[in-house]
Amino acid sequence: MKAFVQLMGLLTLIAAGMTLITGSLNAIFDWDLGLKIGGSSIPLPPDFFSVVAVALLLVIIGGLFFLIADAKRVFRFIRRYRWRVLIGLATTIAVLVIGFPYAMPNLSLELAVQEGDSAKAQAMLDQRQYPTAVLNDLTYWSLKNQDFILTKKMLDRGADINHRRGEFKSTLLDAAVHFFDPSATEFLIQQGIDLNAQDSLGRTALHTLITYRRTNVTGADEAQILALVKQLVTAGANPKIENQAGKTPLQLAQDMQYNTIVEFLK
Fold first, then answer.
1. Where are its TM segments located (predicted)?
2. What value does the mean pLDDT of the chain take?
3. Lowest mean pLDDT segment, chosen from 5-19, 72-86, 113-127, 219-233
4. What is the three-class DSSP state of 41?
5. Which residues on neighbouring strands pair with residue 40, listed in sequence order?
6. Per-residue CA distances from 128 to 47, 124, 160, 211 (Å)
7. Average pLDDT over residues 200-223
8. pTM for the full predicted model
């Protein structure tokens, strides 16, 4: 039992470290990475101060696990380093008191959206206004869950349909054609998303669709990709835009040997 509790304490401290590292990367590179635990991705607060508060809370929880596992050893450590412990504890409490009013309300909404609890998420949106950065991030998850009513509500509440996310500054449309059900692409077109936005590598949604969908979506074949290409082009997507490598969607379709798509784009 003692070994198990110590292991829980160690894992909690590792989670605290990963939270701080991930939050730092988000702050430095303007990413929106979360913590991957099991099959779920837990979002982090958009502001770094709140990330620090979450990390410190995890440190406290980890310390409690170690206290339960070996109280005598923990108290010996506290007596030996009492002033450092007191200063650290006071700093931790101050950060938690200041930071958590900002972090926790947003975290509750984030978890509701990720878990697909649309009714709870919509009720929370009705209660108060949330930061645009939070809503932007959550539109990705609601689209992934095919919850277009919730997505529309977040757009109405201030989410930017054309916001960029991740390492390559990709758009919601990039994510939709890359990973999601075709209905997500249709929804975004209806909402007026920029069909020709380019990511940091110069790729439009057409580039992403042709290059990546087949290997990332179960059951995606050339016919489905062609249907999405037609939908995008008909709505105004430009098939002649080149990425940083100088390739158009037509050239990528030729590379992928998508003959029906090549014929359509010629």
1. 7-28, 48-69, 81-104
2. 87
3. 72-86
4. strand
5. 37
6. 18, 7, 18, 41
7. 95
8. 0.68
Amino acid of residue 139? T
Residue tagged 């990528």 (tokens)? 252
41 strand-pairing partners: 36
CA separation, residue 153 to residues 142, 160, 189, 256 (Å):
10, 12, 16, 38
Whole-angstrom distance, CA of residue 205 vs CA of residue 238? 10
**Among 167, 244, 231, 234, residue whose Cα is nearest residue 204:** 244
Structural domains in the chain plus CATH codes:
1-153 (no CATH), 161-266 (1.25.40.20)
Contact 79, 57 (CB under 8 A): no
Give me the count of residues in the chain.
266
Long-range own/partner contacts, residues 180-187 (CB < 8 A, 24 or more apart): 180/143, 180/144, 180/146, 180/217, 181/146, 182/224, 182/227, 182/228, 182/231, 183/146, 183/148, 184/143, 184/144, 184/146, 184/148, 185/228, 185/231, 185/232, 186/231, 187/143, 187/148, 187/151
How far apart (Å, rounded) are the C-alpha atoms in residues 51 and 179? 28
